[in-house]
Sequence to fold (209 residues):
Amino acid sequence: MTSRNYAAAAATAGAAVIAAVALAACGTGASPGTQAPVRASTSATAAFNTADTTFTTSMLGLEEQAAAMAGTVTGHTATPELQQFAAHVRARAGDAQRMRELVGGWRQPMPAPYSPGASLPAGMMGAGMMNAADWAEISHEHGQSFNRHWLDAMISSYNAEVALCRHELGSGASTQARALARALLTERQSELAHLQQWHHDMHQMGMMG
Fold:
């Protein structure tokens, strides 16, 4: 995927996420403008709705993709900002684990683990996700070309995460999922700002190819 295509994907990530959540809600039989009925569970996460399950499964795919993307940095670029950011992403595996715990507590189908380059599992398809062609392209790039595509892909992914967090805070029923969304929104907005600044700086210095 070209840098221009990634930029377009990033610009529409929020709208695509909201549309996907709305379609999921329609599938539950909820009337327009209402959330799906809250379901009961014997776990600590007793109350949840469609917005909560869409948030956790979609965020899980994006989080596991980010971890896979972080693993591509070594051997592909010597840019210190990207190397440090990748190390930070690899160190936060607890976020994905928490999402899996929530899905399990709600007794909902657990998405299959993310596999770079493979067909996306049900529940992990959506805004910000890379396809097999994206992975094939970036896995063969190095230096400036890698930097450009890596930053474009991560910015698109983080835009989608921010949109999901905002939708969960406005529509979710689970106290635990909303608390997670609130914490992640603060973190991802800060990280997204860094990614966008690096993208701008590298472009200005001619490091983006």
